[in-house]
Amino acid sequence: MQKSHSLRDDEKLRAVVFLDIDDVLCVHRTLNTRQVLAVLAGDNSVDAHEVWQQIFHASARDNLRQLHDEFTPEYVISSSWTLHLNREQLCETFKRTGLEFVSDNLHEHWCTPRDDDSYRLTEIEAWLDTHASLTPVSFLILDDMLSGQSIPGSHLEDHAVLCDAWVGFTHPKLRTAQKILRAKMKKAAR
Question: Which CATH class is domain 7-27+56-189?
Fold first, then answer.
């Protein structure tokens, strides 16, 4: 007899991706949150078409889409961008850059907590302690070597893919991310 899964069981099996933006998706040397904010505010001195086409690296977007197509995770934004853009502005940015699947799958608790003394490890730990302590989730951290420098050597290291600065989420990093999530999801399904 095959075990049937309720919606609740399926939701428990859904992975969470902690997504950084700078040096994961945004590797452009001159486009950043300032230009995004300007375009969202209607500033005509900034070329909106250029911002939406180039703010996120094309192959990083494609690689994130492949990861999404395989796992359909929920996303928690773990990025300094949350200091400058609210949820609505981030969703608009994702939609205009071809990453609507991120905005459509933001977790209810869509960003890690940040304060002046926090760093990526403590932010992700705080989110997990608050939102995944009773029902643990499979998760992946997509970050970069600089902002994620607290992760190597920590208990979260095996959950992380750290991208190189100015390079982003490359195909080899996608393969590593897939391997991590496949193992975590297989373990969670047991």
Answer: alpha beta
